[in-house]
């Protein structure tokens, strides 16, 4: 690992000459944007790397610093609490970011302790807190990660959720929800495997949009479940010509399976209009639209946020057909009831099934969010069932396995709607049964996909029709 790049900036701080390593400076910039502006690290990272002119190994170092610091924050905070003479709540947030960054280098990277500590103190220089950062990180450096975990994690036998939360760096409530969801899938003992999978950066997967690209023209290995996917070993997917031309896209295999499950479900009668209710940024829309185009159907995509609707338009640009993108609230879609044949409700959710890709999501969500989210999810599903024609299909999906967003939404809909029927879904994937019979739940540790949940409904045909 390179310590300090050629163009390292030197500046005077705390009366001594300090050298700020641009890679670490860039990492702090990303961490600040994630904390202050609720930014997504994977979106800010490329922008910051470009601005600092960091490529190759330096870019790799920044990526590791940022993603490791965010992912392992729960573990590091438990260690830092044991090393700081003041409660972490009273440490300035920017300084806490630095402490986490230093701790990641000490406990998870092969950075020599003196370099991990001095570069972090240099970053703190201007804040007049270098002494505090130095003292805390020196204490952290006294043990390795395993020794710290033995000291700071409560015993598993007495407090399994709190133990797993510290060891695998997830909020306690998230561990409890994932444990419940796994128990409903017959895998209560798999919690640690799931939490570990959440902390492992996934391989980038691409989708060859049908009719626009062949998967054989894409680099990487074919994905096991989606016949349109490939998994890359590494490299920048933006340099793949089919991706640059919009004929292929970056898309998790689980997300591909969601679009395919709707497109391939058996449907009698008219099949000309498909609707994607929560479309932004448009990955599933692009796959649905290319499948629809191949069958003479068209896609209407709605998205509540204007800027995300723009992203959907961009994703659909290369797909032939008269597809339409509207900025609209999916709980009140601007469409005539009965005019649509297939609907996807890829509902806004906690995103706790996609923590491999969105490491910060676990720290942003609170258990209190679940109630409002599951209410919104039910309303979106109800509106979709209102707008689909009798006999038509609605696929409800979330990238969360949390039961409030899966089992609860589906069971309440089944109870409330006497004009819709849950249609058993079988993707032919082992160990993918969902918490309600006939639904599907994918898992990162079992299937290597995000934890997508799928439930298919058919709007009943009135008996007089
Ligand atoms: C899980 S994301 C959809 C991901 C998308 N299907 C894809 O594959 O790229 C949920 C989306 O729903 C949007 N959304 C939230 N509330 C909505 C509403 N009431 N109506 C329509 N869209 C909504 C969010 O802005 C977000 O873009």
From TrEMBL:
<dbReference type="Pfam" id="PF01029">
    <property type="entry name" value="NusB"/>
</dbReference>
<dbReference type="Pfam" id="PF01189">
    <property type="entry name" value="Methyltr_RsmB-F"/>
</dbReference>
<keyword id="KW-0808">Transferase</keyword>
<dbReference type="GO" id="GO:0001510">
    <property type="term" value="P:RNA methylation"/>
</dbReference>
<dbReference type="GO" id="GO:0003723">
    <property type="term" value="F:RNA binding"/>
</dbReference>
<protein>
    <submittedName>
        <fullName>rRNA cytosine-C5-methyltransferase</fullName>
    </submittedName>
</protein>
<feature type="binding site">
    <location>
        <position position="329"/>
    </location>
    <ligand>
        <name>S-adenosyl-L-methionine</name>
    </ligand>
</feature>
<dbReference type="InterPro" id="IPR029063">
    <property type="entry name" value="SAM-dependent_MTases_sf"/>
</dbReference>
<feature type="binding site">
    <location>
        <position position="346"/>
    </location>
    <ligand>
        <name>S-adenosyl-L-methionine</name>
    </ligand>
</feature>
<dbReference type="InterPro" id="IPR006027">
    <property type="entry name" value="NusB_RsmB_TIM44"/>
</dbReference>
<feature type="domain" description="SAM-dependent MTase RsmB/NOP-type">
    <location>
        <begin position="180"/>
        <end position="460"/>
    </location>
</feature>
<dbReference type="InterPro" id="IPR001678">
    <property type="entry name" value="MeTrfase_RsmB-F_NOP2_dom"/>
</dbReference>
<dbReference type="InterPro" id="IPR049560">
    <property type="entry name" value="MeTrfase_RsmB-F_NOP2_cat"/>
</dbReference>
<dbReference type="InterPro" id="IPR023267">
    <property type="entry name" value="RCMT"/>
</dbReference>
<dbReference type="GO" id="GO:0006355">
    <property type="term" value="P:regulation of DNA-templated transcription"/>
</dbReference>
<keyword id="KW-0489">Methyltransferase</keyword>
<feature type="binding site">
    <location>
        <begin position="278"/>
        <end position="284"/>
    </location>
    <ligand>
        <name>S-adenosyl-L-methionine</name>
    </ligand>
</feature>
<feature type="binding site">
    <location>
        <position position="303"/>
    </location>
    <ligand>
        <name>S-adenosyl-L-methionine</name>
    </ligand>
</feature>
<keyword id="KW-0694">RNA-binding</keyword>
<feature type="active site" description="Nucleophile">
    <location>
        <position position="399"/>
    </location>
</feature>
<dbReference type="InterPro" id="IPR018314">
    <property type="entry name" value="RsmB/NOL1/NOP2-like_CS"/>
</dbReference>
<dbReference type="InterPro" id="IPR035926">
    <property type="entry name" value="NusB-like_sf"/>
</dbReference>
<dbReference type="GO" id="GO:0008173">
    <property type="term" value="F:RNA methyltransferase activity"/>
</dbReference>
<comment type="similarity">
    <text>Belongs to the class I-like SAM-binding methyltransferase superfamily. RsmB/NOP family.</text>
</comment>
<keyword id="KW-0949">S-adenosyl-L-methionine</keyword>
């Amino acid at each position: 690992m390179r310590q300090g790049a050629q163009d390292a900036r030197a500046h005077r701080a705390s009366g001594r000459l300090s050298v700020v390593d641009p890679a670490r400076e860039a990492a702090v910039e990303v961490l600040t944007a994630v904390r202050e502006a609720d930014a997504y690290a994977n979106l800010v990272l490329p922008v910051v790397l470009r601005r600092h002119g960091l490529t190759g190994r330096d870019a790799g170092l920044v990526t590791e610093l940022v993603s490791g610091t965010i992912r392992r924050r729960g573990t590091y905070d438990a260690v830092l609490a044991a090393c700081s003479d003041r409660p972490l709540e009273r440490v300035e947030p920017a300084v806490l970011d630095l402490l986490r960054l230093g701790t990641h280098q000490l406990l998870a990277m092969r950075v020599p302790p003196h370099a991990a500590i001095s570069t972090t103190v240099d970053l703190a220089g201007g804040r007049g807190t270098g002494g505090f950062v130095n003292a805390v990180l020196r204490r952290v450096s006294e043990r390795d990660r395993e020794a710290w975990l033995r000291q700071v994690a409560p015993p598993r036998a007495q407090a399994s959720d709190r133990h797993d939360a510290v060891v695998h760096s997830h909020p306690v409530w998230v561990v409890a929800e994932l444990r419940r969801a796994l128990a409903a899938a017959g895998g209560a003992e798999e919690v640690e495997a799931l939490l570990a999978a959440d902390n492992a950066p996934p391989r980038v997967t691409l989708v060859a949009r049908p009719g626009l690209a062949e998967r054989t023209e894409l680099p990487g290995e074919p994905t096991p479940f989606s016949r349109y996917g490939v998994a890359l070993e590494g490299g920048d997917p933006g340099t793949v010509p089919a991706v640059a031309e919009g004929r292929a896209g970056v898309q998790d295999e689980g997300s591909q399976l969601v679009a395919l499950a709707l497109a391939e479900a058996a449907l009698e009668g008219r099949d000309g209009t498909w609707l994607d209710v929560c479309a932004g940024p448009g990955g599933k829309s692009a796959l649905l639209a290319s499948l629809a185009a191949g069958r003479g159907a068209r896609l209407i995509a709605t998205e509540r946020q204007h800027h995300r609707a723009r992203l959907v338009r961009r994703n659909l640009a290369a797909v032939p057909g008269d597809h339409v993108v509207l900025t609209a609230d999916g709980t009140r879609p601007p469409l005539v009831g009965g005019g649509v044949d297939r609907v996807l409700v890829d509902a806004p959710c906690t995103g706790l099934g996609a923590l491999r890709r969105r490491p910060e999501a676990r720290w942003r969500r609170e258990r209190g969010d679940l109630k409002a989210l599951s209410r919104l999810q039910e309303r979106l599903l109800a509106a979709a069932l209102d707008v689909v024609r009798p006999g038509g299909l609605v696929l409800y999906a979330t990238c969360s396995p949390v039961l409030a967003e899966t089992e609860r939404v589906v069971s309440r809909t089944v109870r409330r709607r006497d004009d819709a029927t849950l249609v058993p879904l079988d993707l032919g994937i082992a160990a993918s049964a969902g918490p309600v019979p006939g639904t599907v739940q994918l898992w990162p540790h079992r299937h290597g996909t995000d934890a997508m949940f799928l439930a298919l409904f058919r709007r009943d045909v009135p008996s007089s029709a």
